[in-house]
Specification:
By secondary structure, the protein is of the alpha/beta class. It has seven helices and six strands; from the N terminus they run E-H-H-E-H-E-H-E-H-H-E-E-H. Bound molecules: 3-methylbut-3-enyl trihydrogen diphosphate (2 copies) and magnesium ion (MG).
Length: about 250
């Protein structure tokens, strides 16, 4: 990177893509127009993340609470995920992007589940950029499902309750095997997590960008990473020198 930022690059960047509706409202357009433009931003930012050498990019596309929106908007958002996978999967694959979708699949339309399976299967051996799409995702329900799975293993006798550690919990989440996000960016000026990666964000750096998601640019991504690199991550210790380097 050209800007002289001191810290290391984040391995895992996660983004709460917010502000599509306000982007559309400002233009007197229907909300779906904002979501469509938001998909264009997804394309641009995925490309930029690959070029920046980010290893993991997680995008929050639809929360488990977004079902509370009008049926028409929910259906528009489902349609856009379909369109994104149909239109972009081949190019993502060519560019070495691995696609993984986290969240509940049970209540998604069968054709969407099939598209998700296709995307994950086709790209599973790619390693240039690992793209995780959080869709019908909620941190609380993810942790609840993990607890249910652990409880089943306890009942079956394969886990001793005394041996349950934070690593056990991590390994039962949708993000099993993925390092926790170093940096979480939320666009549109809102300052909350909205049920995103609750367990995994324990020590994430948070950066809030004013831009509405459809207006978010690679320069703003670089600026957020620059801010991340200037921060001192202590993980509860006294100085960054005390911080264990972690795996990798
Ligand atoms: C983000 O934009 C997209 C989703 C949550 C699916 P919003 O639709 O939340 O846009 P605002 O917050 O209403 O502007
Ligand atoms: C969070 O945005 C969910 C996604 C970006 C997919 P929301 O717009 O749904 O969040 P709230 O309702 O403002 O907290
Ligand atoms: Mg919003």
């Amino acid at each position: 990177m050209s800007d002289a930022a001191p810290g290391t690059m984040p391995r895992h960047v996660a983004i709460i893509m917010d502000g599509n509706g306000r982007w559309a409202a400002k233009r007197h357009l229907p909300r779906v127009a904002g979501h469509r433009q938001g998909v264009e931003t997804v394309r641009v930012i995925v490309r930029a993340a690959g070029e920046l050498g980010i290893e993991y990019l997680t995008l929050y596309g639809f929360s488990s609470e977004n079902w509370k929106r009008p049926a028409e908007e929910v259906s528009d958002l489902m349609g856009l995920l379909r369109l994104f996978i149909r239109r972009d999967l081949a190019e993502l694959h060519q560019n070495g992007v691995q696609v993984r979708v986290i969240g509940e699949r049970d209540h998604l339309e069968p054709d969407i589940v099939a598209l998700i399976d296709e995307a994950e299967t086709l790209t599973r051996d790619n390693h240039r950029l690992k793209l995780m799409i959080a869709f019908n995702y909620g941190g609380q329900s993810e942790i609840t499902s993990a607890m249910r799975r652990i409880a089943r293993e306890v009942r079956a006798g394969s886990i001793d309750p005394e041996n349950i550690t934070p690593e056990t919990v991590s390994a039962h989440l949708d993000t099993a095997g993925v390092p926790d996000p170093d940096l979480i960016i939320r666009t549109s000026g809102e300052m909350r997590l909205s049920n995103f990666l609750l367990w995994q964000s324990a020590y994430s750096e948070l950066v809030f960008a004013e831009a509405l998601w459809p207006d978010f640019t690679p320069d703003e991504l670089r600026a957020a990473i620059g801010e991340y690199r200037r921060r001192s991550r202590r993980f509860g210790a006294t100085s960054s020198d005390d911080v264990p380097r972690g795996e990798g």
